[in-house]
Amino acid sequence: MAAMGRGSACPCGGALPGQSVNDQKLTRMYVIFVLAIILIACLFFLLDRALKAIQRGRRRRNASERLVAAAIAAEEQHRRREQQHRQQKAQQEASTALTNVLPAIRSEDDGPRRVA
Predict the structure, then answer these.
(1) What is the pTM of this model?
(2) What angle do CA 13, 18, 22 make, to 5 degrees?
(3) pLDDT tens readout for residues 5-46
(4) Which of 9, 24, 34, 99 has its CA 20 to 30 A from that of 17?
């Protein structure tokens, strides 16, 4: 047991050569402190990524809702224009049909008409 002195590594204490037990505990505490800081930094990084992913998802959902609303509005506008076009075409056909039945009255003289 005399060979196990202060300069050798003790199996029960695990101190490095030239290091006391208190120094060893302090070193372990520093290592644990550094590891805790690294762990906290990693957690903050993951939290930042998660919040950005949530925000990106929210923006995409809002954009999707706006796109759907714009598509519905465009479809409605297209339907109204198509309906107006059909009405104008029907009015034009009715006017053409009426003109074919009642041709324009042409006066023989080009002067103003006289009312009797």
Answers:
(1) 0.48
(2) 50
(3) 444 445 555 555 667 888 888 999 999 999 999 999 999 999
(4) 34
